[in-house]
From TrEMBL:
GO terms for molecular function: peroxiredoxin activity. Signal peptide: none annotated. This is Carboxymuconolactone decarboxylase. InterPro entries: AhpD-like, CMD-like. It comes from Mycolicibacterium neworleansense. Residues 20-99 form the Carboxymuconolactone decarboxylase-like domain.
């Protein structure tokens, strides 16, 4: 995962520094979500970006916009994540990933219909990683909102160079 020209999440780190034991435990958990998951990077970032969209967490959205692009999502796909699962351009699995996030956040769990789609593609470990990824990033979105975290200072500069960092591939012709 590249670190140059990527957000540093300093406001998150600064907030969690007030509780070192919790920070250590959460970073271990989050390390699995980022690096040890059985989901592909693309699947993970679809889930994370959908959590950010549903929770209206601009902090989480901008932190993971770069990670999502590094995972191979295009600008158009990132925009579709915010729109939701009903775009005909999503594969059935990707639509189910997005729908599962909506259901977990809004209903507390994944519906039988969505679960059946996911279970045709995922084994139990992947299903566990899906639930814990959505839950882990939902916790972060709640942290960001509750502590009223503001955008990190590096985000405006990175966004001003976004199209330099991610050239036209996958962008709409009008960009």
């Amino acid at each position: 995962m590249p670190t140059k020209d990527r957000p540093k999440a300093l406001n998150t780190l600064g907030t969690l520094a007030h509780h070192p034991d919790l920070a250590r435990a959460y970073f271990t958990f989050n390390g699995h979500l980022l690096l040890g998951t059985t989901l592909t990077e693309r699947q993970r970032e679809i889930v994370v970006m959908r959590v950010a969209a549903v929770r209206k967490s601009s902090y989480e959205w901008y932190q993971h916009l770069f990670v999502a692009r590094d995972a191979g999502l295009t600008d158009e796909e990132v925009g579709r994540i915010a729109y939701g699962p009903d775009s005909p351009l999503w594969s059935p699995l990707e639509a189910a990933l997005i729908r599962s996030v909506d259901e977990m956040i809004l209903d507390g769990g994944i519906s039988t219909a969505t679960w059946q789609v996911l279970a045709t593609e995922f084994d139990t470990r992947q299903l566990l990683d899906l639930v814990f990824t959505a839950g882990g990033y939902d916790i972060l979105a709640r942290l960001f909102k509750s502590f009223e975290l503001t955008m990190d200072d590096d985000i405006p500069d990175l966004m001003s160079r976004y199209h330099e960092l991610y050239p036209a591939q996958g962008r709409c012709a009008s960009d």
